[in-house]
Write a structure and sequence with these properties.
- By secondary structure, this protein is an alpha+beta fold.
- The chain folds into three domains: 6-97, Integrase, DNA-binding domain (Double Stranded RNA Binding Domain); 103-181; 209-364, hpI Integrase, Chain A.
- The chain contains 16 helices and seven strands.
- Strands 1-2-3-4 form a four-stranded antiparallel beta sheet. Strands 5-6-7 form a three-stranded antiparallel beta sheet, with no helix packed on it.
- Strand 5 (257-258) and strand 6 form a beta hairpin.
- The chain is elongated.
Length: 419
Amino acid sequence: MVRITKTAVDALQAVAGRPAFLWDDKLSGYAVKALPSGAKRYLVKYRANGGGRTGRQRWLTIGTHGQITPDEARKLAQQALAAVARGEDPQAEKVIRRSAKRLADVWQRFEEEILPLRKPSTRYDYGLFWKNDISAPLGGFDVDKITRSDIDRFHKRMRKTPYRANRILSLLSRLMTLSEAWELRSQGTNPCRYVERFKEEPRNRYLSTAEIGTLGRTMDAMVAANELSASAANAVRLLLLTGARLNEVLSSKWEWVDLDRKVIELPDSKTGAKPLFLSDVAIDVLGHQRIEAGQSEYLFPGDSETGHMINLRKRWKKICGRAGFEGVRLHDLRHTAASVAVGQGLALPLVGRLLGHSQPRTTQRYAHVAHDPALDAANKVGMAIGSIIAAGHPQQSGMIGLKPLEDSGEPDGFRLSAS
């Protein structure tokens, strides 16, 4: 039994100066070809006209090993063979596409063949990058004429948004690499390769205890005034209570919710399958959202083609404007959850498990402790010591800060009855 895997492809070598082939016995017609040059290309062999014996034999090159993975190549091979079964001729269509060399044509093929293999959040972001940032300035360029200088100038114009600029540059680099794989550019000429990325300062913005209380009250007021849907408010609450990523919450289905184990079992995420752990307060939020969601299979139904909410940015901007928050992103709710966890004395490995991190170093960036819990702790220590000093020196009892600290209770938080 032979299955094309990365290990098998890496081991395949040309023999005596002649190409060597490895055929997959699970997917008929799917193979990888090792050239004497060392390059390895994935391909599909089929017969045109629906695959009948009278059809002309075709060889369709899917991509180059290293630029796409065996699993990606397998999915593309399956798509090509399905097209053959429908009576199409992918190789003939490929020849026609080669005459279209604009970057916009590369994007169109990428959108049709590669992008469907990516996660929904990636598809959404890439689509926005192309539509809002790349299409107008670069889409009409011949892809084989785009130079490093063109890319460098384009990238520098986005210096005010360094993080976004670097993500867009990564997408452009992928498009250029695929252009080489599809033989629309010479090999090894990716013009993005030596363009210097902007330095990205790590963000440590998170909500303080007082701001969390303000957030809860603000959303309550907006829901009561019909300025914000209860579902959107509940989504924000769940993001903060679980520390989950936006798409993890918005795309969750009710069938993944296990109230007995107090988790939402995500079958897939940025780091693969993982659980979202639910506190009693989070379960209370879900109880209210169950009413809002009605018969939808999703926790947070929406009007998009996916059937669920795909974005909260506009609503979050409105919430922040009303609450008086500046520079707070939705993702900073994840920072906030981590910050509160660390402030409660939880060890970083446990915080990493709550957030679903696959690497310990990822959690390390959340190792800061929120300012107000730290200041509160310092005040408690100072007041306690001051009380002792005052007890030993009655004449100093009038000094500021020597009265024992009284527990004023927890600050305002979310009022979950808003929905």
